[in-house]
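Attaching the record inline, Q. Sequence:
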Amino acid sequence: MATSNSETAKTLFFEALALMDSSNFRDAEPRLREALKLAPGQIAVLTNLSIALVQQNKRAEAQAFAEQALAINPTSIEALLVLADCHVHGERFADAVAAYDRLLVQEPRAAEIHNNRGNALHRLKRYDEALAAYEQALALSPTIVGAWLGRANVLFDLNRPDDALAAYGRTLALKGDLAQAWLSRGNALSKLKRHGDALSDYERAATLQPDLPEAWLNRGNALCDLKRHDDALAAFDKALALHPTLAAAWLGRGNVFYERKDFVQALAAYDRAVTLDPTMVSAWVGRGDVLRFLERTPEAIAAYRQALAFGADTAMIDFYLAGLGVGASPATSPQQFVTGLFDNYADNFEHDLVKNLNYHSPEVLAGTIMRYAPPKTLDILDLGCGTGLMGNLLRPRARTLTGVDLSANMLEKARQRRIYDRLVSDDITAFLPTQDGAFDLAVATDVFIYVGDLAPVFPALRRALRPDGLFCFSVEAADGDGFVLRSTLRYAHSIGYLRRLAAQNRFNVEMIEPQVIRRGVHGDIDGYHIVMRAA
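Structure, as predicted:
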């Protein structure tokens, strides 16, 4: 009887192998199960049953049979491969790495195993080890597409976008129709601020795989960066048609409406995003920003606090909350807030400020300066020079013209004007102490709205100016006797505060002139144009 069972088990086993050779794993499975009942403990049956189950996505059972096989033969390559696959699909990546390590003891030159190990290490954010695993795979087999793609993705996550770009290029040279590689290459280009090139890659990905929602999502993000908001909205809608619960696409819609100052629709989109992904920091911040503009202060505070709870930058959120009256106002705007604001604003800065916000401080203040400046050419310092609106007006009176700004994108726009002798990317409080007696005139238009505490600025400016030098600037007007951070996240300064700093730092106040600085969301913003002279 035992011999009969053994023969029957063998017949069933070979029938199952034939079925598996033709990828018929569903019909192979019952034959292997029956063979295992007739001949328990047969490692070949156990391993093939685990393989048949994996192919049908029955991984819990597959893992159990693979572990039975490994209990009999701990070096079974087939069982270890099944075990590793089950761990990966179960997102048990540390266990998967351990299984791949056991496999590599048996097959140290198996390039695909090194590649798969790299994938698991990448998911564990063990980036250096993942990179080494991919490089080992490529050393053994230089044409493994997955290893080039994995290597590129790790380099991207290590914030090495230039190196990632080269690796994506190698991936696409091997397999040019890989939508995921075009998508990821677009992400690297976006990180390098090459938004037009990124858009082309996202469009290539969407053409190759039209049902890939991330291609449409990232296309929308690139179009936002290019200020093509109508096209961006259409791309986000396409992503949502494919994947209605894609929170990042709702975030993108919110950002488009926010840029358009359509705060009601922006709020609705941000609400959908945080409903789908309650941990999405950017959506909570966007929601807080919209509610702040709508003057729904308690709700804005709650949104910012949610962002903080989910890991938002503490300095930034404290700054937003201070603008709403929660906590002490920081002495100055966070540097990343200023650079982010103006790097993103550079392309539309002049049109928006002059045409939409009725901003004329440079022209008015330049005319005022000419009344007080000596009739000769001057060494001029343009603080927070931006795109060069003020510098352009002062160039005819300048022997030398130096511009200082934090925003690289703004400085590039200023450089294109070809009016500055020197452009410096620096914080003004770091730059000024290195400039003793270097200038006849220092100008700061719409700069101190991002600097609350001017106590460190005045003495540094006094040292940078020559005797009788002029210090000319604009501020938003505040009541009281100090400075205040408003809900607009701009600082305002009082006349008493400015006069006190002038007296403490040997400046004579030549003029304080009330001015409408610009048009705001809720009406005109009052301020002052001020001229002081170094005593």
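The CA atoms of residues 430 and 460 lie 9 Å apart. The longest strand covers residues 507-520.

More tomorrow.
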